[in-house]
Design brief:
Distance between the termini: 30 Å
Radius of gyration: 21 Å
CATH superfamily of the largest domain: Glycogen Phosphorylase B
CATH topology of the largest domain: Rossmann fold
Largest sheet: 6 strands, parallel
Number of helices: 13
CATH class of the largest domain: Alpha Beta
Helix content: 25-40%
CATH architecture of the largest domain: 3-Layer(aba) Sandwich
Number of strands: 10
Order of helices and strands: HEHEHHEHEEHHEHEHEHEEHHH
Number of domains: 2
Length: about 325
């Protein structure tokens, strides 16, 4: 962690043509205002990253299980921060389009970018696993309704008999914890999916590679429409790609072109995921679609260096 003295040296060393990039701390963003004003006088370009649109953040706070007083205070703090805090910055980076009033506020100084991941920290698999008598789908993330993993489980329950007749055993590995876990466990119990779904809880990032290497597909967020997003840039799908995994995504994920062979794109709605269609796609990937090729695509489009390169050109 940087000490205050080092932070002071870094800020005062910035000159014309330099960049100050601040990731939003939500209700604590006012802390940086004096620094931002000082640097703008020096003609330093100041950029605020807003990873979670305020309208979405407010909904997350409202739906959280926190005490009502804490929720009220956080909502008030967030509403007093946005949109006023953006007035002090030259540019605002968004990773999705929430729609509504926030689009109008940000329209003149904001631009939408792809979220980035540290692709160097993820080691790609040596090769893609063949789909035989079994297929594993990997779901990683904080368990919340907007990840939509329930769509996957309901689809599995709906087609369980058909899958059995085809001789394919589908296993869903869910890594992470959160408020939605109880609901997912209820679905598993009521639908009799205990032999097909494994809950692993929170796992250190250093141990995720053991899940990547046995998975056939990485499942991205399937419920972002539930929090009002019109487009989104989830991190997890990019991390799957960096690991060389084909991914299941929705049409809301603007980072993935519809014609990419290693992505299976579904509607962003409440329909159950068609598992048989998913298996057919995964079993028939073109030969050029290797784990190495997928990971190289991630490095070319989702790495920090590619992100900063696009940022400088704006």
């Amino acid at each position: 962690m940087l000490r205050p003295g080092r932070i002071y040296e870094a800020v005062t060393s910035l000159r014309r043509g330099g960049y100050l990039y601040v990731r939003s701390l939500q209700e604590l963003d006012w802390i940086f205002v004096p620094v931002v004003m000082f640097l703008r006088i020096r003609s330093v370009r100041t950029i605020l990253e807003v990873p979670t649109p305020p309208t979405v953040l407010l909904k997350e706070i409202s739906d959280s299980p926190r005490h009502w007083f804490i929720k009220v205070m956080k909502i008030l703090a967030t509403r007093t921060s946005f949109p006023f805090i953006t007035l002090f910055y030259e540019s605002v980076v968004n990773f999705g389009l929430p729609g509504g009033w926030i689009d109008k506020v940000f329209s003149k100084k904001s631009f939408v970018e792809s979220n980035w991941v540290d692709t160097e920290r993820v080691s790609p698999s040596e090769s893609l696993l063949e789909v035989g008598a079994s297929m594993r789908i990997l779901c990683i993330g904080t368990l919340a309704p907007w990840h939509g993993f329930d769509r996957l489980l309901h689809g599995l329950a709906e087609q369980r008999e058909l899958l059995a007749s085809l001789g394919i055993n589908v296993v869903v590995d869910i890594v992470g914890d959160g408020d939605e876990r109880a609901n997912l466990e209820k679905i598993v119990f009521e639908c009799g999916l205990d032999k097909h779904v494994c809950f692993h809880g929170n796992v250190p990032s250093t141990e995720l590679e053991s899940f990547y290497c046995v998975a056939h597909i990485g499942c991205s967020s399937l419920g972002l429409h539930r929090i009002g997003l019109r487009s989104a840039s989830p991190l997890k799908a990019k991390e799957y790609c960096a690991a060389g995994l084909p991914v299941l995504v929705t049409k809301l994920e603007s980072d993935f072109k519809l014609d990419l062979p290693f992505t299976h794109v579904v509607e962003s709605d409440e329909t159950n995921i068609d598992i048989v269609s998913l298996i057919h796609w995964r079993s028939n990937l073109p030969q050029r679609c290797s784990a190495f090729a997928i990971s190289m695509y991630a490095k070319g489009f989702f790495s920090a260096s590619s992100y900063l390169g696009r940022l400088r050109r704006t």
